[in-house]
Amino acid sequence: MGRGSVLELAPTEATILTCLGSRDAVDAAVAVSGLEAGRVARDEAMLIVPAGRDDELVAAVTAAVLPVDADALVIDTTDGWSIWTITGGEREMGSAMARLTALELPDPGFAQGDLARVPVKLFVARGSVRILVPSMWGAYLRARILERCSTLQIRERRPPRPWEVPA
Amino acid sequence: MTSIDFEGTPVESNEGDTIASALFRAGVRTFTRSLKYHRRRGLYCLSGDCPNCLMTVDDVPGVRACTTPARSGQRVRRESGSPSTERDLLGLADKAHRLMPVGFYYKSFTKPRWLWPLVEKVIRRHTGVGTLPVDQLPQRKGARHARPDVLVIGGGVGGLAAARAAAGAGATVAVVDEGRFAAAIPAGPLRRRIEDLAAELRGLPTVELLEQHVAVGIYEGPTVPCVGPHELVEVEPGRVIVATGAVEAHGVFAGNDLPGVWLGRGAARMAGVHGVAPGRWAVAVIDTTEGLEHLAILRSAGMRVAEVVAPDAIAGRVPAGIPVTRNARLLAAHGRGRVESVLLGTARGERTVACDSVVISLGYAPRDALVRMAEGLPVSAAGDVVIPGCTVEEAEASGTRAGSDAGRADHAREPAQAPLGAEGYVCLCEDVGVEELRAAWAEGWTSAEILKRYTTTTMGPCQGAMCGGHLAAFVEDHGGAPQAQGRTTARPPARTVRLEDLAGGVNEVIEKRTALHDAHVAAGATLDRSGSWIRPSTYGDVAAEIRAVREGVGVMDVGTLGKFLVAGPDAPQLMDRLFTCRVRDLKPGRARYLLALDEAGYVMDDGLICALDAGRYYVTSTTGGADAMEAWLLNWADRWHLRALVLNQTSMLGAINVAGPRARELLQRLCDDDVGPAALGYARHGDITVAGVDCRAIRSGFVGEVSFELHHRRSSGEALWDALRGAGADMGLRPHGLDALDVLRLEKGHSYLGQDTLPDDHPAKLGLMWAVHMDKPAFVGKTALLRMSALPLERKQVGLDFAAEPQRGAPLYAGDAIVGRVTSCARSEALGRWIGLAWLRRVDGAFPARLRAGGIGATVVDTPFYDPDGARQRA
Amino acid sequence: MALKIPCPHCGPRDYTEFMFGGELRPMGGAPGQGPTAEDPHDDFARVYLLDNAPGVQRERWFHLFGCRRWLELRRDTRTNEVAPGTAP
Predict the structure, then answer these.
(1) Closest CA to B263 of B252, B248, B274
(2) pTM for the full predicted model
(3) Which DSSP letter does residue B137 get?
(4) SS3 content of chain C, % helix, strand, coil (to 5)
(5) What is the interface pTM, i.e. ipTM, of the complex?
(6) Which residue among A71, A72, A99 sits closest to B142, beta carbon to beta carbon?
(7) Among partner residues C13, C69, C87, which is closest to A113 by beta-carbon distance?
């Protein structure tokens, strides 16, 4: 059995920015290269900044946004989120997500909705799903993922790993 | 060879046995007692349709023994009858039908009025149903979602052919069946065809086979919850094909419920699948060609067929050697507790034939409840559901059409209705006979839907599978108005379903934790659920925790508060028009109590508003109100087209309240910023650094002492908490939980919204008009308050002093009249007396001041109880 | 069980992801005007005299589990049939 078919859960670390502002301003924020973005609403985006490039990219986002909308907000909301990454083969991932959520997942892409009865943001890539849940539910969600996926032989990996943003 | 435990006796079971077949082989004939009259009932349909074999299996009541596989060690017992199902003294009820006429539940024992509650208890205890295990935790079941293009319900020939056709057309398919495919079908062409089709499907990657799963019903969407042995599968298919087959028509004649009366398929299943003869000698009443096939199966199991009753068309095909009576009617089955003979009506008069079994094959009733409940949804049907009694070939063709045709259904063929006799039980579940239906009709209940409700026909575990057609036929025969005819409405669930099954996947406790959760656990706190959060109620000594706040310093984790940043050019306007306080004159660095009213003027939430620089605001709400506050802020920004941005910071920020006469001294030890009364006085806020942690400190006053709410990034929480506790150790600092807070806030007369308040409390009722600036041009709820201010105040919140320990929730009496209720109460050590909050009604134009709470004297007093002028918190 | 609400930001979702915001009644006065004391009668009708129509109703829903924004829906209260949601 290849490594890809083993289902794993790992805590994940990243810097998260929230950009609130006019549609154009949020468009500009999302267009900054080197980060992953999820469009929450017309006037809001969530930006994932890879570890080690925080200062540089926060400055880049601010520089991109403020000329478009002087009233826009770019705020570090890292502490508001607990991030859990599930990795595995396509089949196992499908089974795991079917046990956790009714959401139809993009492949790849960003989604937000009800997962295990809590509101989450999802970044779906090939072979991995990153689940962002408000911090107060971090412990709950970890326990629930392990429980619901226990029959799928899910394993937990420690310590936390950095979020790798594809170049 | 395995064995099950049947009421304390081991009963052997063979491979492939159900509980019912194992018990029947061991000689059990009475499986249940009927609901009202406690009549003996035995195996009848053997297909999970009738209610005759409901038993308690491993403490779970209402399990269908005929479709539940026998497993080693299973504990099985019958659930009705007193003292037992075999010797049921309540069988006397069968001799006393007159005491329980139709609808007796609505009209007997109603005078005098006190009688019914007593009688109801007795009746409920003696009805023939099982007992729920109240002391057992439900088993937790998993849940998952499935989204096939096509869901096929029913794994017979029609269903499997539909699945094959749909998969062949490129669709993803799921097939759900209550049992294992073909397991309940006697050997023969039908069984072979099902096995072949199933084998074909098992090889297909796009087909999921859900055997031993029960499709509970078809809900909007369509959504079809399928309950399996280990999990609930919530299927959301593109379309549904119902191929649930047909049940053989229930025969209604006198004695039709005696043990020994079998539906043909049930008897054939017992003989052909389980190898047990359903009886020694049978009279078979056959109107269908399928019934002829059963004869051979019954005889191969060693059963003698004493006589066949059949119409001409069938009679000629009865195997030689079996006596045949043509064109006779089955009038009655007789016997004491079981069939001993039948009475036949022939052209030459009535005739009694001795036998121990009656096997009836009278026609078919489609299992169409799932189709009928799915009106307007993409649901079609195939096989016996639409062509009752169809051949194997017809079923396969029908399934193939339904599977490939994107849902074009076969037109339902009206099933031949089995004749309704003059006597006999129409509804086996609820013990309703033809006689009872006639009585109800005579009382004026002359439509199918009303008859159903009055007699409860079709409302039992079988949900009309056996009796639905008969009820419709009864109404038609009796000349019901056209709109009163037809089948009664089908609604989900169609099958018995346990709440724990439906709760699969959602029965979890979802708890929120603050950043300090682990610290609280380490400190030995008692943690309790408070709304959706898990929070410390105490760290061991509530009195000491209160004393620390009143005399020294205490800290509390208040990270649960709702926290919002509001920005944007229109933020000042939004804040000013939302809240009852003045906002425009709130200078940066100042904080104010805020009250949020809904449009009807009722108090929705309260909190604090802090003015930041650059026209931004920091708003806090109560713990339970955070989601609603966010929605509310955004709602009004939208509706007024204001350019305001709202960021919910509840999850990213923690908060610790440092309170007590030495709170400032404690902060000074950890902080270089000026926290003195001039820089950070009451109702001010400022950014300070405490023990290296950046904090927004807000001077608030909920507990009535000098308080600093320190709002900080969640990840710094433990460091800040530990630093405060360490630096305050020599001051007697204690952390406190909700128990201490409850007393501290009560001493200050502060309400808990939702506990001390009612949904229609406006500020005047709560004594909060000081926080409402009616001179502002507009705020949400203002016009409602203006209107209500013209009305006298009929109810208000008051503070109470009690003569002794009162009970929360106790009614308040003025004389003999109940005039209010105690909503909070506690012993205040600081004041040395029992105090509380209550709501109080106006009586004869005035609010009474002397009251009793239960037997305890209570006096209305002013609030706050403690430090009424607020000097301590303002210091 | 499965009223699906089309969210303009997130796509169609089960109604359990939303908070119901009630029947939408037009605000009195020009857009941007708040509730005022000038026409209390109009305000009274908007707050208390809801249509509760057996038919197509304009209503507001808050997408609590998704974008956390309000949307406006036209829903037939008899059949739960919905017209596409629009963000305000």
Answers:
(1) B248
(2) 0.83
(3) P
(4) 15, 35, 50
(5) 0.96
(6) A99
(7) C13
